[in-house]
Design brief:
Layout (H helix, E strand, L loop, with lengths): L3 H4 L5 H14 L3 E8 L2 E8 L2 E8 L10 H27 L5 H4 L12 H15 L10
Antiparallel strand pairs: 1-2, 2-3
Helix pairs in contact: 2-3
C-alpha cells in the first residue's frame, strides 16, 4: 500500500487535525472540538477543571501563494506544525519535564473568556518597556 509519505506528498490538514484531537483525547482532555470559520480555527478542550483554547489562523501562505494549491500547501504545513507542537508539549508532560498546566498555561481560558496570554500580554510588554514588575492578580 502506498502512503502519502511514499509518494512524497504531505499529510493532509484533516489527518493532522484528527491527530491533534486524538493526542489531546488520549492524554485525558475531554470535549475536544475544532471549529473553523473564515481563515481561523479554534481548538477548545477541557482537562481537569480547566478549559483551554488554541487558535490557528490560516490557511495563510507566503505572499506569492495566491492559488488554491499554494493555500492548501500552507494549510497542511500549519496543521502539521501544530500537531508536532502539541505532540512535543505532551511528550514533555509525559516525561515529567513540565506539568500539563505549565505547558498549556498560555492557552488556559479564564472566566472572562480570554486566555491567560491574552490577559497578560500587555502587562508583560509594559513591564519590559518600563523595567518594572508585572502587577500581581491581586493588584491588577
Amino acid at each position: 500500500m502506498t502512503t502519502n509519505y511514499v509518494r512524497g506528498a504531505s499529510t493532509s490538514s484533516a489527518d493532522s487535525r484528527a491527530e491533534i484531537v486524538g493526542l489531546l483525547s488520549s492524554h485525558g482532555a475531554s470535549g475536544v472540538r475544532c471549529v473553523s470559520e473564515q481563515r481561523r480555527t479554534v481548538i477548545v478542550f477541557s482537562s481537569g477543571d480547566r478549559r483551554f483554547r488554541l487558535l490557528l489562523t490560516g490557511p495563510v501562505g507566503c505572499a506569492d501563494e495566491t492559488d488554491d494549491q499554494g493555500r492548501e500547501k500552507a494549510a497542511r504545513r500549519r496543521w502539521h506544525t501544530l500537531a508536532l507542537l502539541i505532540k512535543a508539549k505532551l511528550e514533555a508532560v509525559n516525561t515529567d519535564i513540565v506539568t500539563f498546566e505549565e505547558e498549556f498555561l498560555a492557552y488556559t481560558l479564564l472566566p472572562n473568556g480570554r486566555t491567560v496570554y491574552e490577559n497578560t500580554q500587555q502587562a508583560i510588554s509594559r513591564a519590559y518597556a518600563t523595567g518594572s514588575s508585572v502587577p500581581s492578580a491581586a493588584r491588577a
